Amino acid sequence: MSKEITEEVWEKLHEIAVDATTRSYAPYSKYPVGAAALVDDGRFVSGCNVENAGYGVTLCAECGLVSDLINGGGGRLVAFTCVNKEGTKIVPCGRCRQLLFEHGGNDLLLDMPAGIQTMAQVLPDAFGPSDLDEVKEGSNG
Ligand code: THU
């Protein structure tokens, strides 16, 4: 698939993300989040945040999105957006940048409040799968 993401696709992603906020479970923060992404095979995946009485157990919207990606057959994320319930674009938290990096790499495009940015820009020098290759199997330090 071409890396060129049309305005139409960004609008569709925004629409899907806003729709996902309506299914958010956020009784504690009262801050519904929706996330949506385009996969390299053309499908769209999405997620909403799911909070928990044990606050630290909360699942960000991106967690649901990655679960949707894998459960739907996998693939690579090529374009991503996340919004609050007002439909305002928000930045993915640091942990979620790492989560998304695993499935989109440096070239994943993110619709940030500041404009379209690559993952390499929003998570420079990320630790990823290739870093694990640098340790020989069976070695113990
Ligand atoms: N949240 C997300 O879903 N994604 C992010 O990247 C930032 C934060 C959620 C977690 C929590 O339910 C609420 O926003 C307030 O932090």
What's this entry about, in short?
This protein is an alpha+beta fold and 141 residues long. It has helices at 7-21, 61-71, 94-104, 119-122, 129-133; strands spanning 33-39, 44-48, 77-84, 109-112, 115-118. 33% of the residues lie in helices and 20% in strands.
Percent strand? 15-25%
Ligands in the model, by name, code or SMILES, are: tetrahydrodeoxyuridine
Oligomeric description of these chains: single chain
How many beta strands in the DSSP annotation? 5
Strand order of the largest sheet: 2-1-3-4-5
Count up the helices.
5
**First-last Cα distance:** 41 Å
- Taken from the alpha-carbon principal axes, the silhouette is globular
Can you give the mean pLDDT? 95
Over all CA atoms, what is the radius of gyration? 16 Å
Helix and strand pattern = HEEHEHEEHH
